[in-house]
Write a structure and sequence with these properties.
The structure is a single chain. It is built from four helices and seven strands; from the N terminus they run ββαβββββααα. The protein is α+β, with helices and mostly antiparallel strands. It has one domain: MM3350-like (Structural Genomics Hypothetical 15.5 Kd Protein In mrcA-pckA Intergenic Region, Chain A), CATH 3.10.290. Strands 4-3-5-6-1-2-7 form a seven-stranded antiparallel sheet, covered by helices on one side. It starts with 5 loop residues before the first strand and ends in a 14-residue tail after the last helix. Pfam families: PRiA4_ORF3. This is Plasmid pRiA4b Orf3-like domain-containing protein.
Length: 206
């Protein structure tokens, strides 16, 4: 069956999060690694401020392949990996990749292909079909610092400056899959990589 007639369902888990922060998303079968990156950013709640990379074994050779923006000095000519289709690497027998975001805070995600479905052409993709708990705030210092923030929030001992810095109304226990809005990957690429003014004033809008 042609890849464009399929939908790939992925489960995303933020490693070392306790309680577990996770999402399930569906993307078109012909999605590229750039498309999947943008969908993960939007579903998790990241703001795409930092570098990222996927690492996955090749389905035949089992040698690790890397896709993404992980070295600006080498990748500044639009890396071909961005255009690689996700379905060329993920199969139900080769179902798991590591997705790293923000190499300073070192957010590590497990990305696992959990199902391959027939595409519903009346539905809009990507879409978020499940999940739990809010994403950590961007640039909060990594998982260890995030755990400290959660502890201080629970004890009502969080420093006032840090409380003010948190996103307004931040509730670590709250996540609504229906509230996720997915960006246009082409507009995100034009704005964030090429600085293209034609991308419009709202590069992450729909």
């Amino acid at each position: 069956m042609p890849t464009q007639a399929l939908v790939l369902r992925f489960r995303l888990e933020l490693q070392r999060s306790e309680p577990l922060i996770w999402r399930e998303i569906e993307v078109p079968g012909d999605a590229t690694f750039w498309d999947l990156h943008v969908a993960i950013q939007d579903a998790m709640g990241w703001l795409d401020y930092h570098l990222h990379r996927f690492t996955i074994p090749h389905p035949r050779t089992k040698q690790e392949r890397v896709f993404g923006i992980h070295n600006l000095s080498q990748d500044c000519d639009d890396p071909p990996s961005w255009a690689s289709q996700v379905a060329s690497m993920f199969t139900l027998r080769n179902d798991t990749a590591r997705y790293e975001y923000d190499f300073g805070d070192n957010w590590q995600h497990t990305v696992r292909l959990v199902d391959v479905l027939r595409r519903d052409f009346t539905a809009r993709y990507p879409r978020c079909v499940g999940g739990a708990r809010a994403c950590p705030p961007e640039d909060c210092g990594g998982m260890y610092r995030f755990a400290e923030i959660l502890r201080d929030l629970a004890d009502d001992t969080l420093d006032e400056d840090l409380r003010t810095w948190l996103p307004q109304g931040y509730d670590p226990a709250r996540f609504d899959p229906a509230a996720v809005r997915f960006s246009d990957p082409a507009r995100r690429l034009a704005y964030s990589w090429y600085g293209n003014a034609d991308a419009g004033d709202d590069p992450f809008g729909e």
